[in-house]
Amino acid sequence: MTDEHVRAAYGARAAEYTSLLGSVEDMHELDRQRIELWAKRIDGQVIDVGCGPGHWTDFLHKSDVKVQGIDLVPEFIDSARARFLGVSFRVASLRDLRVPDGSLQGVLAWYSLIHVHPDEFPAMLGEIARALAPGGRLLIGFFEGVEPEPFPHAITTAYYWPVEQMRHMLRESGFDVLDVETRQDSGKRPHAAIAAIVR
Questions:
Q1: In CATH, what class is 3-162+170-198?
Q2: Which pTM value belongs to this model?
Q3: Does the pLDDT at position 134 exceed 80?
Q4: Which string of b and e fits 91-127 if b means at least 16 CB within 10 Å?
């Protein structure tokens, strides 16, 4: 899935997406707890990659985290800047975070890699690992499945990932997995989250 395709698909529906899913209050309470606990272990610069409407970036900012949100979609970034004053946002690709090597202490990738084709996924994890300092932490949220297979997401094609395969890719990219969470909520696709640390 190209950046241009994802940018256009979300840009066309950015206002609708923000109205439905642009608030932390719209998120699962367990997700709020997990992200808050993850952030408490970090002292330094964090990037919320694929921040979308910016609600998780603002959540971290309010938790006194030094955070910046980045997203491919200018419409999301413009809206986030207007809604969350004092929080840093910029347009950027997950393929190139445009930060120096080892300059980050944390990366939140909460459902922001779901549109990445399996063939490109290791390169994305490699870019995150490059940007994180040794001991830097990653928290990734994704749709769990038995195979890395596509499905018709409401915006554009997304992918399920088996937890064990995601663990393997993280290890191959220089991470040690700290913990894994899975959850099946009624009427929702299976959820998984993995916290990892750069070796």
A1: alpha beta
A2: 0.95
A3: yes
A4: ebbbeebebeeeebbbbbbbbbbbbbeeeebeebbeb
